[in-house]
Amino acid sequence: MIVLGEINLRFRCEVRSLGYRLDGSKDELHPRFPSDTEAKPFETQALQDFFQLGSFLGKEKDIADEGRLRFCNRWGPLWYEGETAAQFDGTFFQFHKAQNERKTAMIPNLNIEAVNIPFNLGELKWTYTSEGRLVPTIECHHLAHALMAVWSFSANDTLVDHQSCKFFKHYGTRKGCSKYFQKSRSNKEFCSPNCKNAFKQKPDWREKE
Predict the structure, then answer these.
(1) What are 94-101's contacts with CB under 8 Å, separation 24+?
(2) Domain-by-domain residue ranges, the chain?
(3) Model pLDDT for residues 52-78, shown as the tens digit of each residue
């Protein structure tokens, strides 16, 4: 049986406000200067940025280091501050290997031996959304886990951002409503013109603006 539904992914990236540097013979990731940690939302763009590192890794060290720092300065460490280049690169190459296995209809296998942390999808819990719906939630403790969760649940889809239809968000399901739609532009709020019209027929719709 195949069940389609909504799954909430809970993870916030922790990023040093002044960025990172690579130290020592193992290129360990450390803050550039003493600075605060800023929390920022995790987005699917992080996985796209991670796979784009394939353009840098395996090339000259300076180029690879620059790509790694650019990624970490935006999204934070994959695992923890102090992680080495071997741990970072090993995680990337396992993702890349699993992606190739998926493309050739093989069962992907992710096994990060360089990092002594179980590589799983995170802890499954239940949470209520802002609209009051109870949904299963995967709570991740490391950026690498969040990347794996997004990658796993996008097994048959292109990685694109989706948004809930404004009608569904405020009034629930209606016939013909897709509930979610691909976000093609920043100001799009409804999955279809019909939902937009139905929204504006509600007596309290102006209060929802």
Answers:
(1) 95/50, 95/51, 95/147, 95/148, 95/151, 96/51, 96/54, 98/151, 99/51, 99/151
(2) 8-153, 162-208
(3) 887 666 667 888 898 899 999 999 999
